[in-house]
Amino acid sequence: MNSSKKMLVVVAAIGLVAGLVACATVDVTSDFDPAANFASYKTFAVASMPEFNSITAGRIQTAITQALQAKGLTPVAENPDLSVEVAAKIANQKQINSTGWGGYGYGRYGYGGWGGGMSTTTVQDIAVGTLVVGLMDASAKKLVWRGTATKTLDESTTGQEKQQVLNDALTKMFSNFPPKGGK
Question: Of all residues in the chain, what percent are helix, strand and coil, respectively (each to 5)?
């Protein structure tokens, strides 16, 4: 393989890995009550918001509203079919990164051997945000659907980027809503 083809393969591999990493940035789970009649739900209202500043609460509410509207539900001020309960938490976690080289390898003449090496290990605190959205059947006062999104947060992002992250997380969270196993 000539050098330009090798370079193309390397660039394509790097692009693929970067794309997979980008797709995996938000971890999402959901669960639902299989006895719930999801076809009967047409409206919703956000009943509770986490105790964040009003800017963050507004972003969360906007993202939830857009995600549910994309699923055909209509926001209302009174008497909703679904009451949306929201909880959020930011926690610090330790991240350990090690980089380096050394150890067992093949020498210049094709034989193996042990060698010295160098490595660097860093430990840092990272912020991890978790957003939980519960959909309650408003008349029965019963939880019918629950989704959770977890993501490492980057405090240096702009407000517009934060809104986009929330929009993407909620779109992914509601990707299988209404659930196929419900009534």
Answer: 30, 40, 25
Secondary element (H or E) of residue 164: helix 159-173
User: Rounded distance, CA 86 to CA 134, Å?
Assistant: 6
165: confidence class by pLDDT, cuts 50, 70, 90: confident
Rounded to whole angstroms, how far apart are CA atoms 67 and 167?
7
Task: Yes or no: say if 42 and 75 are a contact pair by the CB < 8 Å rule.
Answer: no
Query: So where are the chain's domains?
Result: 26-90+128-173
How many of the other CB atoms lie within 10 Å of CB of 62?
14
* pLDDT value of residue 73: 97
Kindly report, residue by residue over 83-104, the tens digit of the pLDDT: 999 998 877 766 676 676 555 5
- Residue 92 CA, chain-centre distance (Å), reads 16
Please give the Cα distance from 105 to 177 (Å, whole number).
Answer: 51
Strand boundaries in 38-107, DSSP class E: 43-48, 74-75, 82-106
Q: Which CATH architecture has domain 26-90+128-173?
A: 2-Layer Sandwich (3.30)
Ordered alpha helix ranges (H), 24-158: 54-70
Instruction: Output DSSP code: residue 128.
Output: E
pLDDT score at 9: 30
